[in-house]
Design brief:
By secondary structure, this protein is an alpha/beta fold. The protein has 34 helices and 36 strands. Helix 5 packs across helix 6, helix 10 runs antiparallel to helix 11 and helix 13 crosses helix 16. The two termini are 50 Å apart. About 2% of the residues have low confidence.
């Protein structure tokens, strides 16, 4: 945590009081680490956004975090011996990878999920090593660092000292949809691995039977043992130093009582040394009995809690109880990935709030509001139906409109009944012939931005909401007719039919017209009898009938054949019902004390599968953004039956720290530098239809007589010294000798490899090649034995201490097999890349750069979202954006720039489109501005500015006749190199034209703290790209590759190269040689 800041009288939000989370962040050795965002930015900026495992079984996240521990190890000023070192970091990474492989489900952890697991590793290791030492560390950090900072605002913010009894619980404050269940499964394995005390049972506490059933299913799907708790079920005394995971017994919190009952269990009968998992951990914070009972279970054991809404639950508490909860959870929340982080990282749907600033005075305005909300939903349905194949790539599901609320009661409340009947009366009016003309007029007014409902900026709330509908060219009458057909399954409208489904508990079906065969909606409220009685009141007058035959509509709502478009009622939705369909949410029965439930509802509504199940909206995926007119299907529309419902909802969002007010959306076109079109700029491209995977099939093999295969073998090098340190095997010589001259171990096939399990090796290599995407590579089990186990020339070096492979017992053979698998994965990687490059080099061509064909790099526009949260900054930004937009529209040279504290833009004379945006250091504090494509990071921005400065000086030299053009190369969709994984996409392509020669340069500003400077393909691209140049045989085109290192030369890890030798590999140092590195690059490019 940074040094204390000046006194402020503003109250401190709960999420800023999380001392345990802050302590764990402080263990990373860089003093600039102050939040999750600091670490996340490091990983994101290094393009390590996904969990991938290399041939040594190490995740990319380990390498992404290594600079932090390297900075600590190299900094003599640090005296905190408890900070992380790279050996511990690798040990934790190894554990996470090993546990993850045990799950049946193949997992690619998101960065925040990995951090959840990493923080758990750190905590459990320290907890079970010495609780007393952990207690001492925590209180030292609390007294010396944390409290001095937070008490500057107010002494009331002070967090009390930790006590030993505080340490046996950790909690995860994590958004709905962020994968808490998977984290729980790994937490079970992590606890089992570290535990050294006697544990009675492993128990999962859930809020209701629906979630219990869901958890049992998910445990089974992941190959873990679980069962419902009964008096007869007994997993016995579970484990102490036992590495087999226990059976988890699942129990609803409502069944845990002080005394035994007919369907309940006495809490004292469980003993108090259990391992307890608590789902929806906020449940019970509002009532003494539930929390007291569940806490008893783990009093001498250990507890893991999970909730998306700790903040709301604590905020709803009062007085002394609230203070106690703040103290408890500030000291137990190990990780904060609440909804604001989830949203800001691009996960889940976007959302649009159809705000009612005040209750409408006129029935016409109320009707227009609901018609506009229905139009928004209809637009989503229309996009889905008309673009099914396109949207299938993004896993978009059939849109569903849900009317739900914050309160969940067994009986129908007066407000809820009134809200639902109002919905039904609206539907009755909308679909009736009698109101047809007035409804068509309402649609016309709404589409024209004249609904009569305005936001705080006096703009119509539906303005610019119907981009897709406008593109269809349908008039209001045709739109109305189509809504009837698409949403209500009727061609001509008719009377609303309400049918109680006798065979489906608590369900009421809805359709239009007595002869209709398809239901469009279902009400699920539980107390149908009371509701139907309400419908019969004269002022409501909604008739109903009974249906004794049709089965549940609700249970089939996620099926592809479901005809249901509208779901009304909140009971099932809040009890864990899961659906990807929700796209429009109407708020009903919303009070002022349901924050936790509302955020849960909202969290379920914004869930999104996304492209390749990445869980992200397309606007946050580089090169995969859907056109703006289609993005409505990735947006959750929210509206309320009453204005005070919207006020309550906005308050809940504000408490989460996410935008809750009106939002300004702008499409800002770019101004292209079309001068390039006359210059015939070339790009490197594979011929159409010559993709390696589609044209060639190869089989993994090795032949000692084949020179090419022997060249592949020379690249197969594995170093196991850090792994040796983790398990306590040290070298006989000093560490320096082992870095400079590591021992090269060679397997003896008669002794070392005698007990290898070929089946397990085969499975591992098959999984590895699939993860890498080597789908045209076949692997034969017999060849693994004959060509690799029985041969020893296929790898070059296996660097390990002498004793690493010493066999003391049969279990030591696992270390031999694991190392053999590492080598074979590395060989598989090099084998595939060799054959791919050998094939593709015959089909690589130069093509003219074209802004139409290469649209992933040549963007046409920025999509900018600005939430009205900080009024002055908001108004200022909107004004500056509008000036920029007007200049671009008039095709003028861009003179204006965005100059705000947190966001800036600039224009580059050499870049092929402008403006360019970049983030300042404090941009992360204003996540109310989102730009797609993502802004430049600091290293990229510094490179462009340094380049501009150099070119400005060089242009004063009349003898210089060169021309320079620059283009940002988009990750994953631009020009990439290498097979497998995420590939390598240098950040920039720079063309230099001089004397009839075109120099094409691929330039990547990046940190190279941990990079293998000898073997890295990214580093060696400067050499291999010359081979491509030679194969293409065009003397007028020269290819180059440069790494612009923002790591200083002295900060490089295990570097055996001189600075001059690295410069010969085209590695230039951005900070060390700030005033000369651009000139050095040009000198190396130009003769």
């Amino acid at each position: 945590m940074k040094s204390p800041k000046k006194l402020s009288s503003s109250p401190m939000p709960f999420n800023q009081k999380l001392v345990l989370n802050s302590y764990l962040l402080s263990l990373f050795g860089d003093d600039n680490v102050d939040s999750l965002q600091d670490i996340a930015d490091l990983i994101k900026n290094d393009n390590r956004y996904e969990y991938t495992i290399d041939e040594q079984g190490i995740s990319d996240f380990y390498y992404g975090l290594l600079p932090l521990v390297i900075n600590y190890n190299n900094n003599d000023n640090h005296n905190h011996n408890q900070k992380l070192d790279k050996t511990k970091l690798l040990e934790y990474d190894n554990n996470i990878v090993r546990h993850s492989k045990k799950l049946t489900q193949k997992i690619k952890w998101k960065y925040f999920q990995y951090f959840m697991l990493l923080f758990t590793e750190i905590y459990l290791d320290r907890f079970f090593s010495s609780k007393e030492n952990l207690l001492k560390e925590l209180n030292l950090y609390l007294d010396d660092v944390f409290n001095p900072n937070i008490c500057l605002k107010s002494p009331k913010n002070k967090i009390d000292k930790f006590e030993l009894d505080d340490l046996n619980k950790i909690a995860f404050y994590s958004a709905t949809g962020s994968g808490k269940t998977l984290i729980m499964h790994i937490n079970l394995m992590q606890f089992t691995y570290y535990n050294n005390q006697q544990i009675n049972k492993a128990i999962l506490i859930t809020p209701n039977s629906g979630l219990s059933h869901q958890h049992l299913k998910e445990f089974k799907n992941n190959g873990l043992d679980a069962c419902r708790f009964t008096e007869e079920s007994s997993s016995g005394s579970l484990f102490k130093n036992n590495l087999s995971t226990p059976i988890v017994e699942v129990l609803e919190i409502s069944k845990l009582k002080e005394n035994k009952g007919e369907t309940t269990f006495a809490v004292d009968s469980f003993d108090n040394n259990n391992l307890v998992f608590i789902d929806e951990g906020h449940r019970g914070t509002g009532g003494d009995e539930w929390k007291t009972n569940r806490d008893k279970l783990s009093q001498r054991g250990f507890a893991f809690e999970y909730s998306a809404t700790f903040g709301q639950a604590i905020g709803a508490a009062k007085g002394e109880k609230k203070d106690d909860l703040i103290q408890e959870y500030a000291k137990s929340i190990i990780f904060d990935y609440s909804y604001k982080h989830f949203y800001n990282d691009g996960f889940g749907k976007d959302y649009r709030i159809l705000n009612l600033t005040k209750e409408p005075d006129e029935d016409l305005i109320k009707y227009n509001y609901l018609v506009g909300s229905l139009l928004s939903f209809y637009q989503q349905k229309k996009i889905f139906n008309g673009n099914y194949e396109k949207l299938a790539e993004y896993n978009i599901t059939n849109p569903l409109m849900v009317f739900t609320g914050g309160k969940v009661t067994k009986t129908l409340s007066k407000n809820e009944g009134s809200d639902i009947t109002n919905i039904l009366k609206f539907i009755e009016k909308f679909t009736s012939q009698k109101a047809r003309e007035s409804t068509i007029r309402a649609i016309k007014n709404i589409m024209n931005g004249n609904s009569g409902i305005t936001n705080t900026n006096s703009s119509d709330i539906f303005a610019d909401r119907f981009v897709y509908l406008m593109s269809l060219g349908l008039n209001e009458a045709k739109l109305y007719q189509d809504i009837l057909k698409i949403v209500f399954h009727t061609n001509n409208g008719g009377s609303l039919q309400i049918e109680e489904l006798k065979s489906a508990d608590g369900e009421i079906a809805l359709k239009i017209g007595q002869n209709a065969t398809d239901y469009f909606g279902v009400i699920n409220i539980g107390d149908t009898k009371k509701f139907l009685k309400l419908c019969q009141k004269p002022e409501i007058n909604l008739k109903h009938s009974s249906n004794n035959f049709d089965k549940s509509l609700f249970l089939n709502i996620n099926n592809a054949e479901s005809t249901i478009n509208i779901l009304i009622g909140s009971r099932k939705f809040t009890e864990g019902w899961s659906s990807w369909r929700v796209s429009t949410m109407g708020l009903l029965n919303m009070g002022k004390s349901e924050g936790s439930q509302v955020i849960q509802l909202f969290g379920r509504g914004v869930r999104l599968k996304g492209y390749e199940f990445c869980l992200k909206r397309s606007a946050a995926i580089s090169g995969k953004k859907l056109k703006i007119k289609y993005q409505a299907v990735e947006t959750l529309n929210i509206f309320g039956l009453k204005a005070n419902y919207m006020d309550a909802f906005k308050t809940y969002l504000q408490s989460e720290g996410v935008p809750s007010g009106d939002r300004y959306d702008m499409v800002l076109p770019v101004l292209k530098n079309n001068a390039y079109k006359k210059k015939n700029l070339k790009i490197l491209k594979l011929q159409e239809g010559k993709k390696y995977q589609d044209n060639e099939n190869i089989q993994l093999s090795y032949d000692t007589e084949n020179t090419d295969y022997n060249n592949i073998a020379k690249k197969v090098v594995i170093n196991l010294y850090i792994q040796a340190q983790i398990i306590g095997i040290k070298s006989a010589s000093d560490d320096k000798d082992y870095i400079n001259e590591p021992h090269n171990f060679k397997f003896n096939k008669e002794t070392d490899l005698a007990f290898l399990n070929t089946d397990q090796i085969y499975t591992e290599i098959i999984d590895y090649k699939n993860e890498k995407g080597y789908f045209n590579l076949t692997i034969d089990k017999a060849i693994i034995y004959n060509n690799f186990i029985q041969e020893d020339g296929w790898y070059d070096r296996l660097e390990a201490p002498d004793d690493y492979f010493k066999i003391n017992n049969f279990n030591d053979y696992k270390r031999v097999q694991d190392s053999f698998i590492m080598l074979l994965k590395k060989y598989t990687d090099e084998f595939y890349k060799y054959h791919k490059n050998n094939y593709e080099k015959g089909f690589m061509v130069y093509e003219n750069l074209n802004d139409n064909d290469n649209d992933a790099n040549f963007i046409d526009e920025y999509q900018i979202f600005v939430a009205e949260q900080e009024k002055d900054e908001y108004d200022n930004l909107i004004q500056q954006l509008n000036i920029l937009k007007q200049e671009i529209k008039e095709n003028k040279n861009i003179k204006s720039t965005i100059k705000l504290q947190r966001l800036k833009s600039f224009n580059s004379l050499s870049h092929l489109y402008n403006p360019l945006f970049y983030q300042t250091k404090s941009l992360k504090n204003l996540k109310t501005i989102n730009i797609t494509p993502i802004e430049l990071n600091k290293g990229e921005m510094d490179f462009i500015k340094d380049l501009e400065g150099y070119l400005s000086n060089e242009n004063n030299n009349d003898d210089d006749k060169s021309e320079v053009f620059l283009l940002r190369n988009q990750a994953k969709t631009g020009i990439g190199f290498f097979a497998g994984g995420s590939g390598f996409y240098p950040d920039f392509i720079m063309w230099i034209l001089k004397n009839g020669t075109q120099y094409i340069n691929f330039i990547d500003p990046k940190g190279i703290y941990h990079t293998d400077l000898k073997h890295s393909e990214k580093i060696n691209l400067s050499k291999t790209i010359k081979e491509k140049e030679q194969n293409l045989n065009d003397n007028s085109i020269i290819l180059n590759s440069f790494i612009i290192s923002n790591t200083g030369y002295l900060g490089l890890e295990n570097n055996d190269f001189t600075k001059k030798e690295l410069m010969n590999k085209n590695i230039l140092f951005q900070k060390d040689d700030k005033n000369t590195y651009i000139k050095t690059m040009f000198d190396k490019i130009l003769p």
